[in-house]
User: Which sequence fits this backbone?
């Protein structure tokens, strides 16, 4: 959610900031703005809508400055409009600020500031910050100290950057619960909420931690806590390339990322399988694996698509490891005072590694003494840094808001973790080797499914005007039904529901008619006959049926209106295959409806506020 980019150096910052914002558009936003110092005077330009509108507005303004900050906003407090867009300024425009996050006690602070004579121009919670900083500067403090003092009074989350015209050679930035990274260059430095915004200029970065305040000049960087304690920070080198965050000739990032899945799955597997021994080697868990194997319970905690991958992981771990496993919504976990102890291992799953609810759940579990483990995609993310250990998915940058390749890579990592634990408990070498061999075959089977893209597009044409969908699956494929429905909702705005197929007759069957398409995930496994019975029930009521079935299943064609045939694999790995056609179907329906597939309305890629 929201995007931050800042620059200080010898170059004109305006094109750098605008291009940085464009790199952050995938995160989701509804307004954009830029603030610079020109001739030591602040100039702020902002608007509702896209970065391209902002670019058009500043094109004829002859802006030239070597210091500036820019922002894309995803509305929380106040509607999307120019007033509520960032940057926000103090009364004389000498201070301007951009902010990601939520100030939970802003109402109390705002009331106090109003009593002091401050006037507000927006409905946002963020505006209180600039007036608080103004007040501390008036009391004789410099900018960094004023930011520290202000943040000591704040409850909530923030990633922020501030510029003050009377100290025109510095940017002050701070972070709590909202990611922020400082980029280091030659006679220039950067600030951003995501490395993709500054990757064109530097690969040397410093990650800010919660409660840290950074002072950035063109030649230096330093950090303190909000309590004024000096901190020594480690410099990291970014390994991703610009090519990885470009579309690569595809019309949309989402399609590119769907098509990348054979390679991203290979990357998730690469170097981790020890085939002769029927096991895996996960370097990120090497120090905790003995403890993990002995845990009495495993909990998987996540949000959205990652929660769906966790549900599949529950089936995997319970079937092969025989450890009781629960899957929790991270957003609910800490609010119900969960029963957690040192006998539990808890996996926190997040593509970005910055999901606010998942981070909050992590900290709650850590405080209660559980072994906390991460599964995430972004190296150096908050979850990666705050867990005891973990596994990277190595899916590469995922730009499309609707997660695709991250989901399949999470499933692969959960399968690897399952194999690791199971071999140390009760799974034989022979069975472990068979499982590992099947896992190694998954990328080529995904490639075979992707060749069905044209056929799936034709099916999408038939159903693009439907207003409701029902997705049904059993066992391992029930979570895939949930994920397929979510993909359709996210990008096509068509109402869709995922259900265990057996639950259909306990309510949803009332919805079935000739206008209600039902998608059945029907591979030939132990639940196949039951799924066929459910298909018959829908057919008897005139419903239109799309089936995801195995290549050798000719009988199902007589029962359904459309079938998408995919290769066979073992039950635990089937969700990695069955989800691919559902991703493509959602994509093509949304495209045919003329919608913005990569940036669906109201959604953000990384949900960094609760």
Assistant:
């Amino acid at each position: 959610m929201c995007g931050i980019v800042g620059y200080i150096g010898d170059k004109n910052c305006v094109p750098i900031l605008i291009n940085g914002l464009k790199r952050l558009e995938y995160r989701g936003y509804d307004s954009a703005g830029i603030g610079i110092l020109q001739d030591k005077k602040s100039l702020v330009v902002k608007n509702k809508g896209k970065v391209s509108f902002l670019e058009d507005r500043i094109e004829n303004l002859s802006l030239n400055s070597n210091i500036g900050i820019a922002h894309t906003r995803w509305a929380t407090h106040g509607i999307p409009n120019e007033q509520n867009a960032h940057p926000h300024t103090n009364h004389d425009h000498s201070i301007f600020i951009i902010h990601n996050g939520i100030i939970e006690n802003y109402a109390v602070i705002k009331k106090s500031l109003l009593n002091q004579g401050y006037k507000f121009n927006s409905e946002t919670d963020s505006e209180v910050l600039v007036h608080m900083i103004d007040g501390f500067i008036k009391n004789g403090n410099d900018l960094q100290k004023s930011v520290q003092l202000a943040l000591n009074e704040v409850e909530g989350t923030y990633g922020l950057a501030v510029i003050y015209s009377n100290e025109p050679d510095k940017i002050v930035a701070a972070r709590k619960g909202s990611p922020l990274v400082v980029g280091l260059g030659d006679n220039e430095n950067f600030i951003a909420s995501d490395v993709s915004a500054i990757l064109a200029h530097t690969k040397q970065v410093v990650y800010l931690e919660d409660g840290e305040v950074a002072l950035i000049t063109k030649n230096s960087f330093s950090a303190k806590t909000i309590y004024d304690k000096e901190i020594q920070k480690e410099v990291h080198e970014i390994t991703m390339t610009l090519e990885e965050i470009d579309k690569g000739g595809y019309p949309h990032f989402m399609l590119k990322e769907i098509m990348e899945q054979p390679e991203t799955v290979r990357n998730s597997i690469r170097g981790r399988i020890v085939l002769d021994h029927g096991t895996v080697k996960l370097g990120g868990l090497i120090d905790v694996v003995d403890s993990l194997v002995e845990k009495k319970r495993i909990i998987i905690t996540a949000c959205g698509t990652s929660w769906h991958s966790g549900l599949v992981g529950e089936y995997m771990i319970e079937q092969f490891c025989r450890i009781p496993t629960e899957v929790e919504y991270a957003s609910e976990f800490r609010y119900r005072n969960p029963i957690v102890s040192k006998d539990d291992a808890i996996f926190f799953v997040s593509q970005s590694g910055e999901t606010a609810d998942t981070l909050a759940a992590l900290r709650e579990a850590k405080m209660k003494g559980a072994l906390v483990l991460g599964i995430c995609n972004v190296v150096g993310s908050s979850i990666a840094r705050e867990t005891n250990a973990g596994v990277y998915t190595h899916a590469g940058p995922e730009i499309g808001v609707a997660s695709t390749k991250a989901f399949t890579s999470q499933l692969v990592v959960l399968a690897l973790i399952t194999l690791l634990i199971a071999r140390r408990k009760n799974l034989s070498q022979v069975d472990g080797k068979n499982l590992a061999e099947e896992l190694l075959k998954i990328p080529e089977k995904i490639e075979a499914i992707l060749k069905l893209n044209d056929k799936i597009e034709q099916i999408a044409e038939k159903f693009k005007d439907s207003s409701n969908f029902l997705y049904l699956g059993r066992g391992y494929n029930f979570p895939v039904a949930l994920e397929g429905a979510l993909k359709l909702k996210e990008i096509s705005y068509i109402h869709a529901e995922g259900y265990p197929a057996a639950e259909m007759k306990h309510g949803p069957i009332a919805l079935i008619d000739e206008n209600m398409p039902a998608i059945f995930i029907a591979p030939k496994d132990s639940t196949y006959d039951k799924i066929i019975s459910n298909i018959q029930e829908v057919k008897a009521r005139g419903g239109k049926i799309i089936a995801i079935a195995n290549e050798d299943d000719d009988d199902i064609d007589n029962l359904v209106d459309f079938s998408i045939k995919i290769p066979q694999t073992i039950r635990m790995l089937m969700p990695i295959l069955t989800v691919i056609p559902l991703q493509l179907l959602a994509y093509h329906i949304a495209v045919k409806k003329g919608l913005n597939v990569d940036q669906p309305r109201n959604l953000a890629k990384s949900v960094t506020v609760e």
Remarks:
- The radius of gyration is 25 Å.
- The domain at 452-597 is CATH 3.40.50.10490 (Rossmann fold).
